[in-house]
Amino acid sequence: MRPTVFALLALSPLLQAQAPPLRLPDASPRAQVVQQVGLTEITVTYNRPAVKGRKVWGGLVPHGEPWRAGANENTVVAFSTPVKVGNATLAAGRYGLHMIPGPSTWTVAFSRQSHLWGSYGYDPKEDAVRLAVTPVGTEPTERLAFTFDDPGEAGVTLSLRWERLRVPIPIGVDTKQVVVASLREQLGGLHQFFAASWIAAAGWCLKQEVNLDEALTWTDRALAMRESYPALSVKAGLLEKKGDQAGAQALRSRALAVANEAEVNQAGYELLARKKVDEAIALFQKNVQNHPGSWNAHDSLGEAFALKGDKERAAFWYRKALEMVKQEEQRKRIQAELAKLQ
Fold first, then answer.
1. CB 130 within 8 A of CB 99
2. What is the tens place of the pLDDT at every residue in 264-297?
């Protein structure tokens, strides 16, 4: 049925108004990639143009002119903590990424202005960091892509890939200092009321051999709440790292005096890992003496003697463990260990 004159007149104001935009596919679709380096999060938000058979470098993307490193708005790189790009440190925040291609060497710029359309309003005065990079050949890439290559605790390489070129941008992260700063912040919150949090923070510093003096104060905070094997052990390790062997030994003796069966067992295995078999055997023997009904204590002592090469004593303690253990899986494992000693 054709619309009547009255219906068309009624619609006339609406037809004259500007129609809202329809949602249609973007020729250069939006994309985002994220990489965690330690506690640092790096995010790249960009649009992905396609080659479509065109000459890209020195053509679609001219040499010597600033380029948005993508399509539409400028590409944005965001860092959750300070990072190092080239020889300069970038504060946490959002940066517009621009590139100036050349025949062999490119300039990469991280601009404090991150809301430009393309590179039309790009101003070098806004650069937070500029560095020279050398692109390398790579496999064909139809749609421009950013990838994170070779991520590690100390950094990652952010690579732009398009056509047959890869543009690598090294990004360094001082993960140890980032974590220490995070621990300080966390310990200022709800974690300050829990001894386990102070111990875990100090233990991380001990393992990473960083921030030892402050870590000692963190163990003291834990010990002020309750004297425990973990707190005393971590403090002993910190004192040892600082060269106080006598103080470390005294604390380890105190730690063992308050340790439960599982903690003594753990200490024994830590000694085994450090190849201190005789010291581990002494701890396991203490555990057997204090916990004569524990199959696990006897099993650990058997394992220690086996590592020492004393098959007779190892078999003796394994058989003791076998008499006590109820779990079928553990019985089979101990029987297998006994078989190895034959």
1. no
2. 999 899 899 989 999 999 999 999 999 999 999 9
Of 73, 134, 72, which Cα lies nearest the Cα of 101?
Answer: 134
Q: Which residues of the chain have pLDDT under 70?
A: 1-16
Q: For residue 318, give every residue at least 6 positions away whose Cβ sits within 8 Å of its Cβ, in sequence order, or none.
A: 298, 299, 302, 306, 334, 337, 338, 341
CA distance 205 to 238: 9
CA distance 106 to 146: 16
Q: Which domains, ranges and CATH numbers included, belong to the chain?
A: 30-135 (no CATH), 174-258 (1.25.40.10), 278-342 (1.25.40.10)
What predicted TM-score, i.e. pTM, was given to this entire model?
0.81
Residue 10's pLDDT is 56
| Half-sphere exposure (Cβ direction) of 87: Cα atoms closer than 13 Å | 1
Residue 114 is which amino acid? S
Q: What's residue 18's pLDDT?
A: 84
